[in-house]
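pasting for the record
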Amino acid sequence: MAEKLKIDIVSDVVCPWCTIGYKRLEKAISELGVQNQIDIEWQPFELNPKMPAEGQNIIEHIEEKYGATLEQQKESQQHMADTGEELGFTFDYFDEMRMSNTFEAHVLLEYAKPFGKQTALKLNLMTAFFSERKDVSDRAILKQALLDVGLNAEEGLALLDQDNARSEVKDKEDYWKNMGITSVPTIVFNRTSAITGAQPVDVFKDVLKDLLQRS
């Protein structure tokens, strides 16, 4: 039996293009019917590692970080919403929306990995943030996300106060940064090649077909 194609997705929970990129990749995999030939692993990347615990209003944050005007932001948000709708995902932007610190979400995504629940948890957290107006740095929200995907919430939340679990995430973030990754999503194939950004479904299909034929 051929080895599975390993796909590492370096991304953040509060990154809209990461959500769109994954949904397009998922569509490409589904349309090719190669679900059983793919092994996806999510890798941590924080868009805002210095984000305070209370978060920051998203309009202020984007203006400070990227210099985008309110008009430009509203246009971008509408584009996200329209693109999401095409992919069956809801982006519900609102004026009081706050950017969250995502470090602890990444700790829990590492916890979910050996249980085969990483993708389910990632999608749950993306949905919580973008579709349900929830703060994904709030431990009550994180607890519910663990329960929703069938994980042991008590065990998972205990890791959030353990230095080794937190260090593991920091080490992984450093690893991918040292590999030259500065923007997300970055989708890495068999740790040998990568593409950045939310590529169109057809681009993902071409890449997958080529790599699967070679393997």
